[in-house]
Amino acid sequence: MRIATAPLRLVALVSLAVAMAAGSCANTEPVPMLAEPSAPAVTPAVATIKRLTRSQYRNAVRDLLGDVAVPIALEPDAEVDGFLLLGGGTTSVSALGVERYESAAFDLASQALKDTAIAKALVPCAPADDTKADASCVDAFVRSFGRRAFRRPLTDEEAARYTSLATLAGDKLGSFRAGVEFALAGLLESPHFLFRVELGEPVPGAKNPEIRRYSSFEMASRLSFFLWGTTPDDALLDAAARGDLLADDGLAHEVDRMLMSSRARAGLRTFFEERFALYRLDDLVKDTTLFSSMSADLGPDAREETLSSIEEMVFDRDEPYPNLLTRRRTIVNRRLASLYGVPASSLDGFAPVTLPENGARAGLLGNASILALYSHSTATSSTLRGKFTRTALLCATIPPPPADVDTSLPEPSEVLPTLRDRMSEHVTNPVCASCHTFLDPIGLGLENFDAIGRFRQTEQDVLIDASGELDGTSFGDARGLGAAIAQHPDFPACLARHLYRFALGVTETDTDEPLIAWLTERFIADGQRVRPLLRRVVMSDGFRRVKEAP
């Protein structure tokens, strides 16, 4: 038996319509920065409603319910401008997706309430009779859990709705737990859980009524999903209830608390996993006849190396951001240590190792995650690797190739044995050359690593030439390329831009450029430490203000 959920689906459709309408509007009215007087003015983005990504859904469910198995058959994410998060604000939910969310909600509710410890933590009271509905006890549960699930207090009308749902189901099924299960499933299926409803509220005394501030509870949600990648904790919701997040001092206090929390590591991981598209490593495919070291675990292991190294660099060692490309310290397991030709420092799990000082491998561009992900299944790709470097690390815009252009390369031969040789032949076409000369010299700097990231000196028995030039800076190999990128002026600016975009959940516009430039300037002045940059992004008016959606 299931209680009809048509009203919930109707609300979801209304929410989606508002999101689509909001996303079609242009920004026109700048407002001054409030958090830091020296920061330039910014034009707020138009309010949107964002569907939780699969990662956010999974993290939020586990924070709400505990150790449960989260269904993976959900509405797929969509990548927009480098982030799945942005796709959540521009895509709808299919009919199949609604059914999947409903099925997941009932499955999760059943799991949670069958676990005695979880059920006791969720339901803050005991019914007078387990075989009957208990409206007062259910109401206490609905208000307590609903506040955490909706990231704000429920209205009396909402609380009454879910309490009535549980009471009806409990009476008909003769079970208090069954009634609570329906209420719990309903809360988890609600668009107020599945979507981040952040539309702002009027600013007291504002001259322009279109310019709004995010409410205190909306700020709690924005802070938590940006810095932690999950739903707010009780302390953050309590701060929101007090109105602390609307004042500079209160907001700064919570930001500092959150950045000191271990949860901030997960938030930063989510950012880099999306920006570098490392989630695709779950489906990494290579030709095992050519790469005998390839296994189903290589992709996930390689992703873990990169994310663990970034986490350690930022939170444990507070290293400057350019070290991402130059550090010889990395974190690997036995499989990756074997691939890299270094002794593993632990027989079980991941542990730090120091790469050889005179070796070819260092930093991010020596990670198997990047080298394997941006290669083909049978061979390396200077174009894919060069494009990753230009777009993900330097924020360049690369136009797509013309629809009718031939992108295939000549097969290896005695005349054209190496990829450099074949690319030189390929770019004789002036249509191709315009982009390939911008990408391939960078990607060729990584040719000493094959399509799964193993070092090699030759291709087709010919010595590989990994030298090249990056915007006027010459390099001799992959480590030289990494050092050149680390010193490139666009490198710190690109991180500031991407963090700002990720924090707002929308693509920046021209009116954001002065603020992004200011964030970059302060980032460099701070020694390119990442945590102060995260704090400045949050304290900016770009993060705290919004333009009213029609």
Percent helix? 40-55%
Whole-Å distance between the termini? 40 Å
Rounded to an integer in angstroms, the radius of gyration calculated over CA atoms is 26 Å
The overall average pLDDT, rounded, is 89
Q: What does the overall shape look like?
A: globular
Beta-strand percent range: 5-15%
Class computed from helices, strands and strand pairing:
mainly alpha
Q: How is the main sheet built?
A: 3 strands, antiparallel
Number of helical segments with 4 or more residues: 25
| Low-confidence residue ranges | 1-36
Strands of the widest sheet, in order across it, are 3-4-11
Count of beta strands: 11
Features:
two-stranded antiparallel ribbon; 6% strand; three-stranded antiparallel beta sheet; mainly alpha; 550 residues; disordered N terminus; globular
Can you walk through the features of this model?
This protein is mainly alpha-helical and 550 residues long. It has a domain at 6-27 and 44-198. Helices cover 51% and strands 6% of the residues. The chain has helices at 6-22, 54-65, 84-87, 95-114, 116-122, 135-150, 156-173, 176-189, 191-194, 216-227, 234-242, 248-260, 263-275, 298-316, 323-326, 334-340, 368-373, 382-393, 419-426, 430-443, 478-486, 490-504, 513-525, 530-539, 541-544; strands at residues 48-51, 195-198, 201-202, 211-213, 329-332, 351-354, 458-459, 462-463, 468-470, 473-475, 545-547. It has a three-stranded antiparallel β-sheet with strand order 3-4-11. The longest helix is centred in the N-terminal third of the chain and has 20 residues, at 95-114. It is globular and about 85 Å long. Mean pLDDT is 89; it is low at 1-36.
